Amino acid sequence: LLERGAFDGVHAALMVHPAPFDVLMPKVIAASMFEVRYAGREAHASAFPEMGINAADALTVAQTAIGLLRQHILPTDRIHGIVVHGGDAPNIVPAHTAARYIVRGDTLADLEKLRPRVLRCFESGALATGCTLEILGGDKPYSEMIHDPEIAAFYARNAASLGRVYPA
Length: 168
What we know:
This protein is α+β, with helices and mostly antiparallel strands and 168 residues long. The chain contains 3 helices and 6 strands, in the order ββαβββαβα. It has helices at residues 55-69, 108-129, 149-161, and strands at 30-39, 43-44, 78-85, 92-93, 96-105, 132-137. A 4-stranded antiparallel β-sheet has the order 3-5-1-6. A two-stranded antiparallel ribbon has the order 2-4. Helix 1 runs antiparallel to helix 2. The longest helix is centred in the C-terminal third of the chain and has 22 residues, at 108-129. The radius of gyration is 21 Å and the shape is elongated.
């Protein structure tokens, strides 16, 4: 929306995000979302495993490295993701795997310090296994949200007039 001019000339914008409870000015931290893809070489897992380059192992190495990195990041940093493709059959060395990850920092500056460290974890998976690595996206992170207390108070008064009251 921003890149296509939807906010041109706009001085303020309101966003309502669903949550299990009401918060007038929730803490919204900076975030970078990306997809990771490993490519190796398929082989029969029983007959010729030595001929394969295991893309699932590459993802396992990366996830282990991320798990170890977590003890050395700021308490406000977040790293989370899911495997969206882990292989095609249990008797085939996986040639292709993919995961989607989000890296978050309290501020955009914190995020920019954390993101390269996380990317090195994915690089370690490729290096350890001989797979190739492709990282898609993540180059346009979301900044942390800075609330305007006066606009938030105006929103709260209007919400109250409709029967919605935010906790103090």
